[in-house]
Amino acid sequence: MCDAKAPGAGKRLTTESGVIYYPNTPEGHAAASADAAKTMGPGAGEGQQPPPPKENPNPPEGCEDYSDALWDKPCSKYFKYAHMKYKPVANPEANLTANQIACNWQKTCKNILDPLIDAGFKITISSGYRTPEFDRSLGAKNSIGDHPCGRATDIQILGQGDPAEKAKDLFKYIGKNMSGSFSQLIYEGRWVHVAHGGNSPASVAVLVARTGSAPYQQVGGKAGTSLPPDLKWA
Fold this sequence. Notes:
Elements lengths: L3 E2 L7 E2 L5 E2 L4 H15 L57 H21 L5 E4 L4 H6 L14 E5 L6 H15 L6 E4 L4 E4 L10 E3 L8 E2 L16
Parallel strand pairs: 6-8
Antiparallel strand pairs: 1-2, 2-3, 4-5, 5-7, 6-7, 8-9
C-alpha cells in the first residue's frame, strides 16, 4: 500500500482503496478540522469531551499487532484502520502504544460501528481517532480523552433530511439497544459521539449538548432517565 496525495495542497492523503486521512502536521490538522466543520457545523472537533476520565482502563488485549502495512486493511466487518483518519501514534500521557490505540479502534468498530451498519444505519465517521497533537490543536488540555486513545468516534447520517433528526434516531437506537457496548454516548445536535471501552464516570455516560459544545446536560447516567422527551429511548 502506498500513500498518495489527494488533489489540493497535500493536506489530505488517500489510501489505494480511496479512504481519505490526514498527516499529523499543522496542515493536516487544519484540513481535518475544515472537513469536519463542513458536516458537523458549530462545535465540531471540540478538544475535550467533559469531564475526561481520571484514569484510563487497562491496556486492550486480543488484537493483532498493528503496523502501517495494515493501514488500508480491514480491522472489522465494514471498517479499516484508515477510517481512524490519523495513523496511530504512541500516547505517553495515556500510557498507550500505537498498537494499543489501533486495538482500541478495532474494538470500537467491532462493538459499535459494525452493529450499526448491520442495523441499517448509513453512518459517516466525521471525527475518529485524534493524535495528541491534533487533539491539543482543538483545545484539549490533556491527551487522556477517548478520541486520542482510539476509543471514540463522532458519527452522522448524511444525505437528505434533517441531520439533527437523523442524529436523534441514531442516539436513541444506541441508547436502547447497545447499552452493554458503549461507555459514553452524547447527542450533539448534528452528530452523535460514542465511545467503547472508555472510563467515563457513570454520571456522564450519557450527555446532551445540542450545539456540540458546553454546557453538557446530564441525563441520569447510562439509563438516560432524565432525557428530554424528544431523545428518550425507553
